[in-house]
Amino acid sequence: MNTATGERKRPPPVKVLSGQLRTAKENRGKADSGDGWSVKLGKGRSLAVSLVWMQGTVVEVQIDRNTVLLMDETGTFGVQGVNSIPKGKPCLSQGKYVMVMGVILAVSPEPVIRAVKMADLSELAALHRRMWKLEVEELQQLLA
């Protein structure tokens, strides 16, 4: 815990796919761990996460509801709080390929995260899209 501000330091974001969040389980009774969810990695392994890093294509923007719907190769996921993200406005156009870091709010029926940071990756979207699943798998193998 940071005694100056009274806040706990968050662990770094974990790269995940929306399909993995759909099957995540909430870590009940472990509020002090800072890791609110367990994401299944396969082979019976799981990883505790609170802050996630995701990438996807903007499918729908609802400025009035402060949300955007993104889609990665495993499905769609919602992102809330997009209107208050610094430099987030350029990301809020249908068809853009973006990265988003955020806190998991819900996993079912569709994953929803509260955005902390967003960035437009559209300029090199083809490369980012190809590499994303490999980046997710590599990081998760290192962390598990």
UniProtKB/TrEMBL annotation:
InterPro entries assigned: NA-bd_OB-fold, RMI2
Subcellular location: Nucleus
GO molecular function: DNA binding
Keyword Nucleus (UniProt): yes
Residue ranges, compositional bias (Basic and acidic residues): 1-10, 23-33
UniProt keyword list: DNA replication, DNA-binding, Nucleus
GO BP terms: DNA repair; DNA replication; maintenance of rDNA; negative regulation of double-strand break repair via homologous recombination; regulation of sister chromatid segregation
One Pfam assignment: RMI2
Region (Disordered): 1-36
Entry keyword annotation includes Nucleus: yes
GO cellular component: cytosol; nuclear speck
Family according to the record: Belongs to the RMI2 family.
Subunit structure: Component of the RMI complex, containing at least TOP3A, RMI1 and RMI2. The RMI complex interacts with BLM.
PANTHER family: RECQ-MEDIATED GENOME INSTABILITY PROTEIN 2, RECQ-MEDIATED GENOME INSTABILITY PROTEIN 2 RMI2
Role description: Essential component of the RMI complex, a complex that plays an important role in the processing of homologous recombination intermediates. It is required to regulate sister chromatid segregation and to limit DNA crossover. Essential for the stability, localization, and function of BLM, TOP3A, and complexes containing BLM. In the RMI complex, it is required to target BLM to chromatin and stress-induced nuclear foci and mitotic phosphorylation of BLM.
Protein name in UniProt: RecQ-mediated genome instability protein 2
Organism in which the protein naturally occurs: Labrus bergylta (ballan wrasse)
